[in-house]
Design brief:
The protein has helices at residues 2-19, 40-57, 70-88, 91-94, 98-101, 103-125, 133-139, 151-181, 184-197, 208-211, 214-226, 260-264, 288-297, 311-328, 337-340, and strands at residues 38-39, 236-237, 243-245, 248-250, 255-256, 329-332, 361-363, 367-369, 373-378. The protein is mostly helical. The structure holds protoporphyrin IX containing FE. InterPro entries: Cyt_P450 (IPR001128), Cyt_P450_E_grp-I (IPR002401), Cyt_P450_sf (IPR036396), Cytochrome_P450_monoxygenase (IPR050121).
């Protein structure tokens, strides 16, 4: 875990440098103390991709600072489009029909696999002084056969971590920025909490003080409620013997699922479900019963045996990134109305696409986001 934390800290520092104002600009002019508008969906994705690539492949993609590897992130998104379709119609993949029905997506997915195989081969031959996340996979031996993972399985694992991690974490962080920038009261409370708990940005590290920032965590939980990265149904097949679901008998072999977005917007669990209300997660503001009901239906990481393997790392990454950014900077939406509206719903669209208060994500298997645009200024402290 320490390797992961060191990588996170280093990359979050770079992220904060990149979103902040140009340090060479004329600080005498109040307006020039603000950064130009930053597209947070991009910066958050760069951050999370650089963390996972460095932690897993021992080689950061450096997407925060250079353009050269950003095309890989585009390929990951295209791969999610492929998964989004195949998830609904698995026969397409089972019978190899994707090369006929989805030729471009299938080609791009193959290209992504080839890139990862190449990166992995480089990683395997490189000597490492310190073990990293991938050393665990490389050193693993099957207890029965004593054999190590073959290269194709290592490649699949690296791609799984890279596919599953950055997109999900960046969606959650981007959503938190979107809602906080539009919720003055929540923004004030979370800033007060973080800026009181720590006296220097370097103190913002995993530990009791960070995990004791309950309002910060509530903001993230609420952002993940409103924008769960996998908003659709994660299908599960009913096993032999069938199942009783909500009083109905469902035979074996049937796929069942409920969209996580729908659960997360169900008023029985979340009164006023389209409103960003971090307070709903706090027993200081609600009854224990109401908080427990909210928690019982919260499933951004899915649940059970196939729930996210990355939840603890993700929570740490999200709390550290948001706390450090809020500690260092004041933020605001741009004065330009068009820029200020990037990411929100549009009047005239169908519900809930028309909600200006909700961050709009395009669902693939994951989420494709645009915005919000935000400006940052170094805080005086
Ligand atoms: C806020 C961040 C994250 C969210 C919301 C999230 C969400 C999810 C969800 C919903 C699933 C289940 C998919 C399914 O049931 O088919 C999943 C699976 C998984 N996630 Fe995450 N995830 C996050 C971060 C991460 C990170 C940082 C990693 C590791 C780098 C990771 C690794 C995985 C893996 C390996 C699986 C597959 C587990 C399995 O099938 O056994 N996730 N994630």
């Amino acid at each position: 875990m320490e390797i992961w934390t060191n990588v996170q800290r280093r990359q979050i520092d770079i992220f904060c440098r990149e979103i902040g104002p140009d340090l060479n600009s004329n600080h005498q002019s109040p307006e020039l103390q603000w950064s130009p508008p930053r597209k947070m969906s991009d910066y958050c994705l760069y951050l999370m991709s650089d963390i996972v690539s460095e932690a897993v492949l021992d080689e950061s993609f450096e997407t925060l600072t250079t353009e050269k590897n950003r095309f890989i992130l585009q390929l990951v998104h295209r791969s999610y489009e492929w998964i989004g379709i195949v998830f609904q119609a698995p026969q397409i993949a089972r019978y190899g029909l994707d090369i006929y029905l989805l030729p471009e997506l299938a080609r791009e997915r193959q290209r992504l696999r080839d890139i990862f195989r190449g990166l992995l081969q480089k990683r395997i031959v490189r000597e490492k002084a310190e073990p990293d996340i991938f050393s665990i996979y490389m050193d693993y031996k099957d207890p029965d056969t004593g054999e190590a993972f073959p290269l194709y399985e290592l490649g699949a694992e690296a791609l799984l971590l890279f596919g599953a991690g950055p997109d999900a974490t960046s969606t959650s962080l981007t959503a938190a920025f979107f809602y906080l920038a539009r919720s003055p009261e929540a923004y004030r409370k979370v800033c007060d909490e973080v800026r009181t708990a720590f006296s220097s940005v370097h103190e913002i590290l995993p530990g009791l003080t960070l995990s004791g920032c309950h309002y910060l965590r509530a903001c993230l939980d609420e952002a993940m409620r409103m924008n769960p990265v996998n908003g659709g149904a994660l299908w599960r097949e009913v096993l032999p013997g069938g199942a009783i679901i909500d009083g109905r008998s469902v035979p074996a072999g049937v796929d069942v699922g409920v969209g996580i977005y729908s659960i997360h917007h169900q008023p029985d669990y979340y009164p006023d479900p389209y409103a960003f209300r971090p307070e709903r997660w706090l027993t200081s503001e609600n009854s224990q019963h109401d908080v427990e009901v909210a928690q019982s239906a919260w499933a951004p990481f899915s649940m059970g045996a196939r729930g996210s393997a990355g939840k603890p790392a993700a929570i740490l990454q999200l709390t550290m990134s948001l706390a450090r950014a809020l500690f260092l900077f004041d933020m605001r939406t741009p004065a330009d109305a068009h820029l200020a509206s990037v990411g929100q719903g549009k009047k005239g669209e169908v519900f809930p696409r028309n909600l200006e208060t909700e961050f709009q994500a395009k669902g693939t298997f994951s989420s494709i986001l645009h915005g919000p645009m935000l400006e940052f200024k170094l805080r005086e402290h």
